[in-house]
Amino acid sequence: METQEITAAEAPAHPRLRENIWHIRASSDAALLITSDSRFEVGTEDALRFLKMRSHCTGFHSVEEIAQRSGLALDDVRSILASLEEAGVVFSSPAERADLDRVRAALLSICKIWSDELRLAYIGNEFRHGSLPKTALTGWLCEMYHYISDFPLAIEHGARRAEGRLKDVLVRYAQQEKHHDEFVVRTLENLGLKRDEVKGSAPLVSTRAIGLLMREMFEHEPCSVLLMAALVEAQEFQEEHIAGFKQCMHETYGAPLDAFDPFFEHQQIDVGMGHAELLADNIDLIDVTDMERLDGMVNRLHDLKHAFELQSLEIRDYYTNLNGKYFPRQRMRFSSL
User: Fold this and answer.
1) Which InterPro entries match (predicted)?
2) So what's the pLDDT on residue 256?
3) Is the pLDDT score of 48 beyond 60?
4) 73 phi and psi, to 5 degrees?
5) Which of 13, 23, 92, 281 is spaced 20 to 30 Å from 236 by Cα?
6) Taking the model in full, what pTM does it have?
C-alpha cells in the first residue's frame, strides 16, 4: 500500500471519522496515518494537533464546538478536517446496502491492520526485553491456556448456526483447534507449574470476556469466525526469531532452552494448517451487504481487538505484583464462603 500525502477539501458540518490509526514518534518529522485503504504521511506537529480534536469528531459536534472543546483555533480545525476529507478519513453517510466486493476488500484490509496492531502491542513482546517478572510470564501462559481451551468451543458455537459450505469450514476449523491447550500445559510444566494447578486455575475476567464476545459475534454472524481467524492466527513461523526468544527466556527468566518447544510446536501446526488464510481462502463465504449487519459485525470484531488489549493490561496488573493474590488465579467456590 503506497504512502500518500494529504491535500485539502471541504469537510461536513458535524464531522465523524472513518477508522484511522496513527503511528506518531516525537523524534520523527512525519507521522503515519493508516486507513482501511490507504496510508498517508502527515507532519508530526500536524498529527499531534489533530489528536487534540480527534476525541470530539463523533458526529455530534459542529466544527465550532470541536474547536471550543479542543482548544484549537477554528481555522485550524477547518484546515485539518479539510485535509482529512481529501484523504477519505471523514465519514460520509452510507447507503443501506454495501457493494459486496467493497465489503470483502474492506474486511480483509481491516483484519490485517488490526492484527498488525495487536502484534505490536502484544504483551509477549515485553518478555523478550525482560521488562516483566517471571510471574507475569507464567500468568500470560495460563491465560493462553484458558483462551486456547475455549477457542474451539466458541467456533463450534458459530458452526451450529452456519449452513452449507461455511458450516463445513467452521466444523473442520473447530476440530483442528481442539486439544491445542495441551501444548501450553506442557510449556507451563517445563516452567515449574503442576498440570493440576494449571487446569484448576481460573481465567482472568478479560480472558472470559474474549470468549463471551466471540460467541456473541459468531452467533449473530457465523461467517465472522473467518474474521476472527484473520485477526488472531499466527501468520508465519520464523525459526530464527523463535530461537532468539527461547535464548532470551533462558537468560532472563532461567527457563530451560527447550521449555517453550511445545508452545512453538503449536504455532507451527497452526501456521501449517493455514488458519491465518481462512478468510482470504474463503472470502466468497462473506455475503453480508446489509449495512446494519455489517456495522454490528465490525463493531463486535473491534470490541474483540480491544478485549485482547485489555487482557494484556490485566495480565500485567494481576501477575506483575502478586501482593498476596492467588497464583495462578483461583476459582471462587460456594464452599469457600
Assistant:
1) Haem_Oase-like_multi-hlx, WH_DNA-bd_sf
2) 96
3) yes
4) -65, 145
5) 23
6) 0.91
- Measured between alpha carbons, how far is 125 from 120 in angstroms, rounded to an integer? 8
CATH of 3-86, one of 3.40.50, 1.25.40, 3.30.980, 3.90.930: 3.90.930
**Given this chain, do its domains 3-86 and 100-332 carry the same CATH topology?**
no
CA dist 159 and 162 (Å) reads 5
CA dist 27 and 35 (Å) reads 23
Identify the band that residue 5 occupies on the pLDDT scale cut at 50, 70 and 90.
Answer: low
Q: Is residue 12 reached through a cis peptide bond, with omega within 30 degrees of 0 on the bond before it?
A: no
**pLDDT for 235-280, tens place per residue?**
777 777 899 999 999 999 999 999 999 999 998 998 999 999 999 9
Per-residue pLDDT of 59-98, as tens digits, reads 999 999 999 999 999 999 999 999 998 888 998 777 778 8
For the chain, domain boundaries: 3-86, 100-332
The closest of 294, 310, 295, 267 to 122, measured between CA atoms, is: 310
Measure the CA–CA gap between 236 and 102, rounded to whole angstroms.
Answer: 27
Kindly report the three-state secondary structure assignment for every residue of 195-206: HHHHHCECCCHH
- Its CATH class, for the domain covering 100-332, is mainly alpha
